[in-house]
Amino acid sequence: MPIRWGDMDAQRHVNNTVYFRYMEQARISFFDRYEVGGGGGQLPADHSPVVITASCTYRRALAYPGDVEIKLLLAEPGRTSVMTYYEMRPSYDPEIVYAEGEVKMVWISKTLNKAVPLPAMIRRLAESGVLA
Questions:
Q1: What's the pLDDT band for 36 if we cut at 50, 70, 90?
Q2: How many distinct structural domains can be found in the chain?
Q3: What is the pLDDT of residues 71-123, one digit of tens each?
Q4: Distances from the Cα of 32 to the Cαs of 25, 36, 61, 123, 127, in angstroms?
């Protein structure tokens, strides 16, 4: 994923809020790959994941220019929830983890506006330790 000039702040490094956008895009790309959500894939159109907690630990500052590689791990499936863990490494220093994040998502029915059981496909992916 490209680090854009506009991702940086006055301190000339990627703004802390942008790391959450990077994690979001990695998550969306992962879900697109497995056709999750939106009614176009393997799950009901009415069911969708929602973020209930998100955190990021900043180890080093990312900066423009470059790309950031994001590894995503789906893990710890619960009755209605699943965790996603992230590692972010820049193309200019790929051996070093610059940031780590985690997001907990709950599956909901948009019609009922309440949590629903985690889809079997998501549970299988989380239990298999798939890394994207």
A1: confident
A2: 1
A3: 999 999 999 999 999 999 999 999 999 999 999 999 999 999 999 999 998 99
A4: 10, 6, 29, 16, 19
60 close to 87: Cβ distance less than 8 angstroms:
no
Q: What whole-number distance in Å separates Cα of residue 75 and Cα of residue 45?
A: 23
| 8-state DSSP, 4 | P
Give the CATH number, domain containing residue 58.
3.10.129.10
Residue 14 · residue 63 · CB < 8 Å = yes
Residues whose CB is less than 8 angstroms from the CB of residue 63 and which lie 6 or more positions away in sequence, other chains included: 3, 8, 12, 13, 14, 90
Q: What is the mean pLDDT of the chain?
A: 92
Q: Classify each residue of 94-123 as buried b or exposed e, where b means 16 or more C-beta atoms within 10 Å of its C-beta.
A: eeeebbbbbbbbbbbeeeeeebbebbeebb
Which H or E run contains 100?
Answer: strand 99-109
| pLDDT band at 132; cut points 50, 70, 90 | confident
The residue range of the domain holding 39 is 5-128
What's the count of helices (H) and strands (E) in the chain, helices before strands?
Answer: 2, 5
